[in-house]
Amino acid sequence: MRPVARLRLSLASRILAFQLAIILGALVIGVVVTIGIERAGLDSQYEQRALTLARQVAAMPSVRDGLKDSDPSRTLQPLAEGMRQAAGASFIVVAGPDGTRYSHPNPALIGKKIDESPEAVLAGKPYVGVQQGTLGISARGKAPIVDGSGRVIGIVSVGFLETTLSQQLMNDLGRFALYLLVAVAFGVAGSLLLTRHLKRQTFGLEPQEIATLLEQREASLHGIREGTVATDLEGRITLINDEARRLLRLPEQLEGRPLLDVLPPGRVRDALGGEVTTADAVVLAADRVLVVSRMPVVVRGRTIGYVATFRDRTELEGLVRELDNARSVSEALRAQAHDFSNRLHTIAGLVELGRLEEAIQLTTESSGVSQELTESLLERVGDPVLGALLLGKSAVATERGVQFRLSPDSRLDGDAGHPRDLITVVGNLIDNALDAVAASPNGGPRWVEVSIRQEGGEVVIKVHDSGPGITVDDSEQIFSEGYTTKAAAPGSRRGLGLALVKQVAARRGGQVTVVNRGGAVFTVRLPLDSKPAPMVTPA
Questions:
Q1: Using one digit for the tens of pLDDT, what is the confidence trace for 381-427?
Q2: Cα 530 to Cα 507: distance, rounded to the nearest angstrom
Q3: Which end of the chain is less packed: N or C, by CB atoms within 10 Å?
């Protein structure tokens, strides 16, 4: 047996139904309250009307004289019925001091005592209220009949039956019903306008579709391997996923907080705040290298905020730099091979010409320089990885026409701790030095000198070049990621090397300084016994 499909109303239909239910409910409550108030008002109105009429009848001389007759009903019955019909009352009853009726719309009740106790009225006090009588429930008023000496000689009771009041109430409610219909019509029109407005706001989606989209969005945002941070036009965080919290080292529950209160001053906050307009800007966050892209969020042609994505390029950036080093070494080796080929041809020509002494001298000079640097590195630098890096950088320097020197005071025996940090620091400083020397406009000597030694529990790294040096203004900014004094080709990533050097020094508890001494001198001090710990971005 196939299951019965559940009827699903659209959002507009549900809103219309709810609105109509609310309007009708409010109207029903209003009608009930109005009927109650109107009924109470009518009762009070007819009670006062009955009391007024009773006082008028009680004050008539013919009524007082009629009570003195031997048969009061003969005079009082036609008098009371005439006034009742003229006033539209349901009954006018005139009774003696003992409660005997002398007039009544039902002649059969004349001569019988009234049902209620007349003591209060006989005491001279008027009465108004709703009571049950022989004709039914009525709003009535009672007044004493007083003779010339002030003595109470009877009572007059005037009443209007509730059926009469109900008929008048229904007549009044007929007009009220017209107002209710007008209110319902306005309520329906307002509900239809509201549903149309909501449909535009929700792009025509039904609630279950909106819920599905929200679930998919949450699953996508927290499942992707890119960090995402969305902000409104005032800079408040409206969305942040788990990967962004991990990359930026941020706590939970940041939605609604201003971006300036969450992130410390720096390039990350500048990129999120829009101060960095570069596409795919490279920033450093804690110990990670991130690529940030920031785009506006446009809805219906209006910008409502911004969304920034973070891609972790830490490992990729390291591989790119290693690839650049390898490419530089391979290019240097290719150049050396070409140079050695030329030298071999020259040596072969000298041998054929019988110039053996010149051939031997040229051979000795060619191997001496390279052999001297290799032996110096093997003797002074105990770390083979760092030694290989220095040897490769010397080949690059030779290719670029720069003399590469290892300072005589260089000495690094055994394990210096964390070779990857040393490679990052030494490699970036030498690359910057080579670029500075190559770009130097003066025609003097072109050299780069490297010093690596252990001193007082620290590894001290110095890189000195013969370039133009660092200006005072640049010395305050060169360690900021993204800042560079070099001409950058389109799509190239500049301004990251010295920032990485400073980051490594900060993680190791060391320091970086730069001075001008015939060119720039960068000095990095890294404690040997430090344990690298990732820098936590405060929130």
A1: 777 777 777 877 887 887 788 888 888 888 877 666 667 778 888 88
A2: 9
A3: N
Count of beta carbons in the 10 Å neighbourhood of residue 423: 20
List, in sequence order, the alpha helices (H) in 224-355: 242-248, 259-262, 267-273, 314-352
CA distance 111 to 101: 5
Q: What is the DSSP string of 368-406?
A: HHHHHHHHHHHHHB--HHHHHHHHHHHHHHHHTT-EEEE
- Domains in the chain, ordered, with CATH? 11-168 (3.30.450.20), 224-312 (3.30.450.20), 316-527 (3.30.565.10)
Average pLDDT over residues 340-364: 74
- Can you tell me the distance from the alpha carbon of 339 to that of 345, in angstroms, rounded to the nearest whole number? 10
233 token code pair: 């036009």
- Check whether 498 has a pLDDT greater than 50: yes
Residue 460 has a CB neighbour count (10 Å cut-off) of 18
Are the beta carbons of 264 and 536 closer than 8 angstroms? no
pTM of the model: 0.48
Written as one letter, the residue type at 161 is: L
CB 318: neighbour CB atoms within 10 A?
A: 15
